[in-house]
Amino acid sequence: MDSQPVVKVTGLTKRFAGMTAVDHVDFEVGQNEIHALIGENGAGKSTLCKMLTGLYSVDEGTIEILGEKKVFHTPADSIRAGIGMLYQERNLVPFLTAAENISLGYEAVNGLGMIDNKELMKRAQALRKQLNVDTPLNVPVEELGAGEQQLVEIMRAFYMKPRMLILDEPTASLGEGEIEPFLKFVKSLKEENNVSIIYITHKLEEIMKIADKVTVLADGAVTLNANIADLNLDDCVRAMIRSDKIKSIEIPQKDFDSLEPVLKVGSMEYDGAVHELNVEVRRGEVVGFYGLVGSGRTEMMETLFGVRRATRKEFWLDGETITFADSCDMIQRGLILTPELRANGIFPLLSLTDNICSLFTKRFSSKLDVFRGAQAKAFSNMVLDKNLVRYMSSNQQISDLSGGNMQKVIIGRSVEGDGLRVMILDEPTVGMDLGAKSEIYLKIRHLSDEQNIGVIFVSSELDELIAVCDRIYVMYRGNSIASFRRSEFNKEQILSYAVKGAALDEQ
Question: What are all long-range contacts of 21-25, with beta carbons under 8 Å and residues at least 24 apart?
Fold first, then answer.
């Protein structure tokens, strides 16, 4: 292996309004190397990568690509230098085919200046062969699964012939059966395509499987830089998080059987099928929903909230029968959904104040429809401080926050609504570190135990449902097939139900 690193940063520093986000970081990635970058939310990982990709300017320090100093004024400068990045949130155009997405913005044109579809497909096929994948190229990407969409993102990055690829939480949206094949694929990128990789994740077991080296950031500074072969998981945890930030979760004993449900769901018809749900949620109860990919958890929640169209929908909220209601109606009735993709719950280009107050436009509008800016700002600052959000100003864009802090904003603003009865949290901890997850767990328990709100917690991580919930439903293909009280929780049994549904269907 060549001793000269592909990327080397020295003394890299970035400040925002007096806060140092990246503090004199020394960091390098060798050739044909998978280098894991880990740390808590807000540790500086995203800021570091945004400087490497030209989204942020550098305040101090230098960036070298193969020994040559570079200054990136735009993302295009970084791409030309050979750096590609896959963000945690999908960056594909849903209605375009995979082939069209791969070359988007760099399309081949014919002599008439029109897009040459044959050449476009030819290049996409060449990339597919190069990476040894079989992803369909001629269908809209919205019809592809999460794993295939991830491969399209990677093919799109390889279209620009990168020397180094940054993968930001690449397995966060993948199902259990998709993760291992994807990790093997990432290793093949290094071994067969001579590309170096920065691998950002909170799943420490993944870096132990595929990474050559690891760098840990905490409060913007490097706390550990070592070969994976010389470490274990405990070494990484100690470097990235203080033990005092992981707080124990206490689950009080409650007699839910004596309480009337605040939410009751029987059967509903949507997506062309009747779904048997038989779900109940009581005030002050945290109810988990678990299932394999495609089990229908998110679809059920979207139907309840009114963002997914239903042929027949009937459920009961505090004894009131609901047969039709859109999302605005449900918010007024006291049920709110925080979506799986955080980008769907925010306005990324708007300020923290605008995002927080978006649910309360009537509250901050006068009789003359004049927005009361001072009151809105005071309210948003209260929400931010109350939920321990790390921010610089309520005027900054919400997209500048880390994933954990963004989730605190989304949950925190929802709680401030009038008459909240049920909150649905769909994968609220995706992409978060241990400390941020701990804070969200405590927030969930506070909603149920202190504010007496019914909470629905949807997660693909069974361990966190077992740690936080009072009851768990198991879903399979849109139906609820089993439920467990807390006293009955058994990880192996719950998982077996999720798998059993699939096995019975295939017989």
Answer: 21/47, 21/220, 22/47, 22/48, 22/51, 22/220, 23/219, 23/220, 23/221, 24/60, 24/61, 24/221, 25/61, 25/217, 25/220, 25/221, 25/222
pLDDT digits (tens, 9 = 90+) for 81-90: 999 888 777 7
CA distance 388 to 43: 16
Bridge partners (DSSP) of residue 70 are 63
SS3 state of residue 201: coil
Measuring CA to CA, how many Å separate 34 from each of 83, 186, 215, 276? 14, 9, 11, 45
Closest CA to 304 of 283, 284, 289, 293: 289
Within this chain, do residues 439 and 460 fall inside the same structural domain, yes or no? yes
Domain boundary, last residue among 243, 275, 308: 243
pTM (2 decimals)? 0.58
Cα 395 to Cα 411: distance, rounded to the nearest angstrom: 19
Question: What is the b/e burial string over 362-388, where b = at least 16 CB atoms within 10 angstroms of the residue's CB?
Answer: eebeeeeeeeeeeebbebbbebbeebe
- Alpha helices in 290-429, H assignment, sequence order: 297-305, 327-333, 352-357, 373-386, 403-415
Rounded to 5°, angle at Cα 377 from 375 and 380:
110
Centre a 10 Å sphere on the Cβ of residue 487 and count the other Cβ atoms it contains.
Answer: 7
Strand order in the sheet with 68-70: 19-29, 7-16, 60-65, 68-70
- Which residue segment(s) compose the domain that 286 sits in? 256-334+419-506
CATH code of the domain containing 104: 3.40.50.300
Summarised one tens digit per residue, pLDDT across range 297-331 is: 999 999 999 888 889 888 999 889 988 888 888 88
Phi, psi of 169 (to 5 degrees): 50, 55
